[in-house]
TrEMBL record:
Record's keyword annotation contains Signal: no
GO cellular component terms, A-Z: cytosol
Family in the record: Belongs to the lyase 1 family. Argininosuccinate lyase subfamily.
Organism per entry: Acetivibrio ethanolgignens
Protein name listed in UniProt: Argininosuccinate lyase
Gene Ontology BP terms: L-arginine biosynthetic process via ornithine
Residue ranges occupied by any Fumarate lyase N-terminal domain in the UniProt entry: 7-305
PROSITE patterns named among the record's database cross-references: FUMARATE_LYASES (PS00163)
Superkingdom field: Bacteria
UniProt domain Argininosuccinate lyase C-terminal: residue ranges: 368-436
Known EC number: 4.3.2.1
Primary localisation category: cytoplasm
C-alpha cells in the first residue's frame, strides 16, 4: 500500500503507479530533500513538536542514507512514487530496525510534499544556476584570453552578412563576452528571487503547529520565507525564469556556433578547429566538420521547448498545487543539463581553435569596407557628410568597374572625384587607421578593446 493508501479500498493499479511516478526525474534531488528534512526536524524539535531523541535519530539515519546513496550501497527504487516518498519510507524502515519506528514516522509532521517539492526544486535550481555561472565564467576567461591575443587582428565587420567596416577579431569576441556577462547576471537575478523558503506552507494553508519558518530558512541559508502559503506551494516563476535565462544563453551559443560554422568553411577560412574538436565524414575523406557547433545550434531547440513547456504547463492552473506541476522538473533539469553539456565542449573547442589572421586581413581588404572612412576624410576637409557620401559612392562604382579597390586608385583618379583629396588619403583609408580611429568607448580600436578586457577581468574575476 502507498503511504497515502489508508483511505483506499484497493491497491493502485500498476499502470497508474508508473504514470504517476516522478522518481526517474526527481531522484537527482535526494541531497536537497535530505538537507530540507534535516532542517525541518531540527526546527520541529527546537519548537518542542517532536522529541529531541527522535530528531537525533532522524538526522543520523538520513545522513547514513545519503552516504549509502553516494557510495551506491543503497539504490533508488525505480518503483517509488517520488524521491520524497522513497526517502521517507527508507528512513522509517531504518528507524524501525533501530527499534524506533516512531521517529521515522514523525518526519512529515507539519509538512506536505507540496511545500517539500517546492523547496527541493528551488534548492536544486539555485545550485544548478551556480554551476552554469561557474562554467560561463570559464568561457568568459577563455574569450578574454583569445581576445587579448587578437586586438590588432583586422577582420571585416558585417551587417546583413555583407562586409561593412573593419573591426578586429578581439572586438568581435568581446561582443560575445558582453552577452555571457549578461547571462551570468540573469542567472544571479533568478537565484536572488528564488532564494525564498516555501517550506512551512504545508499542503496549501501552513499548519496548526507552532513551527518557526524563519529558523528553517536560516538553517538552509534562504534569504527569507514566502509570505503567502498558497503562493509558496504553487509558484514556479523561479523555474520559468531559470528556463528563460537558459534559453537566452542558448540563443547566444547558437549565434556564436553559426559564426564558427561560417568561419571554418572553405569560403571564409577565418578559423580552424582543432582536430580533437572536429569530426570527419564516413564517405568524404577530405571533410572536417564543425559538429560541435551544429549540435549546440540544434540543441537550442530543446531548451526553448522546455521553456515553452513550463509556460504552457503553468498558465491554466488554479491555486494551489496541481499535479501538472510535477512536469516542471523534467523540463527545467533538461535545460540545465543541456546548457552545461554545451559549455563543457564549447570552452575547450574555442580554447584550441586556430585563428587565420591572413585570411581575415585579406577578406577585410576587399569589399570597400573603408568607404565610410573615405567619406569621413572629405568631411574633415569641410564637405557635408551627405555630399561626401555621394562622392565616395561614385568612386566605389568606378573602382569596381576598373577592378580596383580604394587603396589602389591613383591620385589623379581621386582628384577627378574631388579636389579635396590629397596624398594623405591613402593613410586615412588604411585598415589599421580605420580601426585605430574608432577609439570611442565600445569601439574596435586596440586600446579601447584592451581596456574592455581589463574591465571585465577586474569586475568579473
Ligand atoms: N512528485 C510530486 C511533484 O513532483 C511531489 C508533490 C506531490 N504532491 C501531491 N499532493 N501529490 O510535484
Amino acid at each position: 500500500m502507498a503511504l497515502w493508501g489508508a483511505r483506499f479500498e484497493k491497491e493502485a493499479d500498476e499502470r497508474l503507479n508508473d504514470f504517476n511516478s516522478s522518481i526517474r526525474v526527481d531522484q537527482v534531488m535526494y541531497h536537497q530533500d535530505i538537507r530540507g528534512s534535516i532542517a525541518h526536524v531540527t526546527m520541529l524539535s527546537r519548537q518542542g513538536i517532536i522529541p529531541e531523541k527522535d530528531k537525533e535519530l532522524i538526522i543520523e539515519t538520513l545522513e547514513e542514507i545519503e552516504a549509502d546513496l553516494e557510495t551506491g550501497k543503497l539504490a533508488i527504487a525505480p518503483a517509488a512514487e517520488d524521491i520524497h516518498m522513497f526517502l521517507e519510507a527508507e528512513l522509517t524502515k531504518r528507524c524501525a530496525k533501530k527499534g524506533a519506528e516512531g521517529a521515522g514516522k514523525r518526519i512529515h509532521t507539519a509538512r506536505s510534499r507540496n511545500d517539500q517539492v517546492a523547496l527541493d526544486v528551488r534548492m536544486y535550481g539555485m545550485e544548478q544556476c551556480r554551476e552554469v555561472i561557474k562554467l560561463l565564467r570559464e568561457l568568459i576567461e577563455v574569450l578574454c584570453k583569445k581576445a587579448s591575443e587578437h586586438t590588432e587582428t583586422i577582420m571585416p565587420g558585417y551587417t546583413h552578412l555583407q562586409r561593412a567596416q573593419p573591426i578586429t577579431f578581439a572586438h568581435h569576441l568581446m561582443a560575445y563576452v558582453e552577452m555571457f556577462c549578461r547571462d551570468t547576471e540573469r542567472l544571479w537575478d533568478a537565484v536572488r528571487r528564488c532564494n525564498v523558503l516555501p517550506l512551512g506552507s504545508g499542503a496549501l494553508a501552513t499548519s496548526t503547529y507552532p513551527i518557526d519558518r524563519e529558523y528553517t530558512a536560516e538553517l538552509l541559508g534562504f534569504d527569507r520565507v514566502c509570505e503567502n502559503s498558497l503562493d509558496g506551494v504553487s509558484d514556479r516563476d523561479f523555474a520559468m525564469e531559470m528556463a528563460a535565462a537558459l534559453s537566452i544563453i542558448m540563443v547566444h551559443f547558437s549565434r556564436f556556433s553559426e559564426e564558427i560554422i561560417l568561419w571554418s568553411s572553405w569560403e571564409f577560412k577565418f578559423i580552424e578547429l582543432d582536430d580533437a574538436f572536429a569530426t570527419g565524414s564516413s564517405i568524404m575523406p577530405q571533410k572536417k566538420n564543425p559538429d560541435v557547433c551544429e549540435l549546440i545550434r540544434g540543441k537550442s531547440g530543446r531548451v526553448f521547448g522546455n521553456l515553452q513547456a513550463l509556460l504552457t504547463m503553468m498558465k491554466g492552473l488554479p491555486l494551489a498545487y496541481n499535479k501538472d506541476m510535477q512536469e516542471d522538473k523534467e523540463a527545467l533539469f533538461d535545460s540545465f543539463t543541456t546548457v552545461k553539456l554545451c559549455l563543457t565542449t564549447l570552452i575547450p573547442m574555442l580554447e584550441t581553435c586556430r585563428v587565420n589572421k591572413e585570411n581575415m586581413r585579406q577578406a577585410a581588404a576587399k569589399g570597400f569596407i573603408n568607404a565610410t572612412d573615405c567619406a569621413d576624410y572629405l568631411v574633415r576637409k569641410g564637405l557635408p557628410f551627405r555630399e561626401a557620401y555621394g562622392v565616395v559612392g561614385r568612386l566605389v562604382h568606378s573602382a569596381m568597374e576598373k577592378e580596383k579597390v580604394l587603396e589602389t586608385l591613383t591620385m589623379e583618379e581621386y582628384k577627378e572625384a574631388s579636389e579635396l583629396f590629397e596624398e594623405d588619403i591613402y593613410e586615412a583609408i588604411s585598415l589599421e587607421t580605420c580601426v585605430k580611429n574608432r577609439r570611442i568607448t565600445g569601439g574596435p580600436a586596440p586600446e579601447i578593446v584592451k581596456r574592455h578586457i581589463e574591465n571585465i577581468r577586474k569586475t568579473f574575476f
